[in-house]
Amino acid sequence: MFSPRTISLFAVLYGTWLLLSGIWEPFLMISGAVASLLVVIIAHRMDVVDGEGHPIDLTWRAILYYPWLFWQIMLSNLQVLRIVLHPRLPISPVAGWVPAGQSSSVGLVTFANSITLTPGTVALTVLEDRIHVHALTQGGLDDLRAGEMNRRVCQMEGNRP
Amino acid sequence: MSLLVDIASWLLLTAGGCLMAASGLGLVRLPNLFARIHAGGLADTGGAALLILGMALQAGWTLITVKLILVGIFLFFTAPTASHALAHAALLGGIDPDATAEGDEDEEDTSASPPRRS
Q: What is the pTM of this model?
């Protein structure tokens, strides 16, 4: 019950409560603590406070990964913007499989989410070792197959491919 | 200093607005369902992020900024889920993702090109 994971879940929930309320009255602060504690107890009884439901062990590596992803999202936003505004609409839509080297489901979901977040590529189907991707241009699919994003997500989940 | 922040915030808000408009334009211009999902992604990611950053600069170091950032984080995790659900449903619904450009989906094509009635 009092593992580091449940304690950190309580801290995250209570912190969110305090930041969202912004009213520093004893009554609201105590109700927040009670509500967070109830959620933690119920989540613990449901057995969902694990590496999948609350992956705190990834926090530091995720903090390194997400800024890079954000930058990639901005770059591909510009590419799709150029395509949409281009008079001749230079698209070459393709669908194909991209290898995924992640070993945990959190890593796999992060990779699929990252693919969908970058405009120009959407994850259609996710299997354990590969992802079916639809891309707006052949270049977008080739970039994914080059494996830079795959490698970085593997690094984030702490597994060297 | 506050003028600089205002200018940065206006630039971000304008760029975000342009991305939103481009996303709408892309939804109309692109030829089929799967290509249009990519245009929708423009508003979900770049547009939303730039608008939220611009609004955060307007709000300054307050709880409003914290809430804006939370909105951004939630969007960051839910938007791709929605896009993926749409794309996967289309795939299961029998729409061929390999279909290239126009000519493959009749009902999609009529809405992509200008009305042909004279």
A: 0.84
